[in-house]
TrEMBL record:
Protein name per its UniProtKB record: DUF559 domain-containing protein
Pfam families in UniProt: DUF559
Organism for this UniProt entry: Agromyces fucosus
InterPro entries linked to this entry: DUF559
Start and end residues of each DUF559 domain: 187-265
Length: 275
């Protein structure tokens, strides 16, 4: 039975019974494992270890795959919000009552019967259709930044609608999800904006024009990090830069307030090098 447990763990803790039989585990072997509590039958043809990933077990139980922003989050991509479980199913598939969002769209790439998670290409296609453009762009650029996909490969897929627009807009060199949000929101200003500019021995989040620095604090900007940030702000000031420092939640939840401050600073010429 220990060999069966190892095989299950290699499959992510949840596996189809028919696939296990194909590699040598008989029906009697699997029934015994269920009777002994080594595995749990979560669906007629699906078995799971008792400590298997909860989302994978739920997907197997419902006959769906994890996809869209749920799988994007699991891959460590930049997701602005993920309050509900997002799954995908074949078009017209019957899915039991599900406490989440089900996508029935035809997948860009075929799904293997053993898979409980969508390939990244399917994830991005569903994110494009499901999420607002800006939120989807952060996911796409995060996937490009991590090297999970590339623009050339995506361009050869049968993408439609908003996915084609994202393909044009996505920047593979975007440094963070915040960059994906802030740059498009400020382009209308018509001034040079350099993300991750190196000034006074450190990177700054954005340099607007010649002298205006925009810094965005995350939850880690406390303690020693805060002291270091304050010291760098002072060094920037002494070198003739002006610094606007805002919080991550301000950018996500109160962009009009952030934009108002930036516009006033640009209107006062604080982004220009002194004559």
């Amino acid at each position: 039975m220990r060999d069966l447990e190892h095989a299950m763990r290699r499959a992510g803790g949840v596996a189809r019974a028919t696939s296990l039989q194909a590699v040598g585990y008989s029906r009697h072997h699997l029934r015994t494992a269920v009777d002994q509590g080594i595995v749990i039958r979560v669906r007629r043809n699906w078995l799971a270890l008792p400590d298997a990933d909860r989302d994978l077990r739920a997907a197997a139980t419902a006959g769906v795959v994890l996809s869209c922003i749920t799988q994007a989050r699991r891959l460590g991509l930049w997701v602005l919000a993920h309050p509900r479980l997002h799954v995908a199913a074949a078009p017209h598939a019957a899915v039991p009552e599900h406490h989440g969002t089900v996508h029935w769209a035809r997948p860009v790439l075929p799904r293997h019967p053993d898979s409980l998670v969508d390939p990244i290409e399917n994830v991005l296609a569903l994110v494009a259709a499901c999420q607002p453009f800006e939120a989807a762009l952060t996911v796409w650029e995060s996937a490009l930044r991590k090297g999970l996909v590339d623009l050339e490969g995506l361009s050869r897929l049968a993408l439609r609608g908003r996915a084609r627009d994202l393909l044009v807009a996505a920047n593979p060199f975007a440094d963070s999800g915040l960059e994906s949000i802030v740059l498009p929101r400020l382009r209308w200003l018509g001034i040079r904006i350099v993300p991750q500019a190196w000034i006074e021995g450190h990177r700054v989040d954005f340099l607007l024009g010649d002298r205006l620095v925009l810094q965005i604090d995350g939850g880690h900007h406390i303690g020693e990090q805060r002291v270091a940030d304050n010291a760098h702000d002072a060094a920037l000031l002494l070198s003739g830069y002006r610094v606007i420092r805002v919080g991550y939640r301000q950018v996500v939840d109160d962009w009009p307030g952030v934009q108002h401050v930036i516009v006033r600073a640009v209107g006062q010429g604080l982004h220009l090098r002194a004559a």
